[in-house]
Automatic annotation (TrEMBL):
It holds the Pfam family adh_short. Belongs to the short-chain dehydrogenases/reductases (SDR) family. This is Short-chain dehydrogenase. InterPro entries: NAD(P)-bd_dom_sf, SDR_enzymes, SDR_fam. GO terms for molecular function: oxidoreductase activity, acting on the CH-OH group of donors, NAD or NADP as acceptor.
Length: 223
């Protein structure tokens, strides 16, 4: 049966490839973006354009356009990746603030706004990073990204506990070191390969394993 899948940050990289995976699976995909690209619209997705996920009124627009439509899978994929190291400048602190807004508050805001659109067996996927793992940090730097993803992990764990009572499961995901514009096209895995792994992890998500933190290769990661 066709599912309704909502994906943020879908204009390129991992988000675009996830759109392809779910479309290939026969699902209805709704992409939430700032500005649509030809590649995205040509896929046949439904596009909600002009959305700034850190703005409350903009998120309200998403809720209004979705109305009472049931969301089977919500994938919070949009993110910002910057690098800061000591000594931190005022520009660095501004960068850190922006990453918290986009990487932590935006997915929490959108998920909160769409709670009434979830039903029993709905799933939420939070695109985090192992760089947000305290236990896994051995290289420092990237203050904003690490801190914002760590905070996202805590918000996601909270959500998983509260949403479980509604029959909604949640996965916290690390895609891998993916070759995208965000990483300046450095990495060791393509967006296509990462998307297949993420697709499988989400498929295997249940209320029994809700709140887990997984690599796209299926490995369980430490918080």
């Amino acid at each position: 049966m066709s599912r309704t899948v909502v994906i943020t940050g879908a204009t390129g990289g991992i988000g675009l490839e996830l759109c392809k995976r779910y479309l290939d699976h026969g699902d209805h995909v709704i992409a939430i973006v700032r500005k649509a690209t030809d590649e995205l619209t040509e896929l046949g997705t439904t596009v909600i354009e002009g959305i700034d996920l850190i703005d409350a009124s903009s998120v309200d627009q998403v809720k209004e356009k979705l109305n009472s439509k049931t969301i089977d899978i919500l994938i919070n994929n949009a993110g910002l990746f910057e690098n800061e190291s000591l000594p931190l400048s005022e520009d660095d602190f501004e960068s850190i603030r922006k990453q918290f807004e986009i990487n932590t508050l935006a997915p929490l805001r959108l998920t909160n706004a769409l709670i009434e659109n979830f039903t029993t067996d709905s799933k939420v996927a939070m695109m985090s990073s192992r760089m947000g793992s305290i236990a896994d940090n051995s290289s420092s730097n990237y203050y904003g990204y690490r801190m914002s993803k760590c905070a996202l992990n805590m918000a996601s764990k909270n959500l998983s506990i509260e949403l479980k009572g509604k029959g909604v499961s949640l996965a916290i995901l690390h895609p891998g070191f993916v070759i995208t514009k965000m990483t300046n096209f450095q990495g060791d895995i393509t967006p296509e390969v990462a998307s297949w792994g993420l697709f499988k992890v989400i498929q295997n998500l249940t209320l029994e394993n809700t709140g887990g933190f997984w690599h796209s290769n299926g490995e369980t990661l430490p918080f």
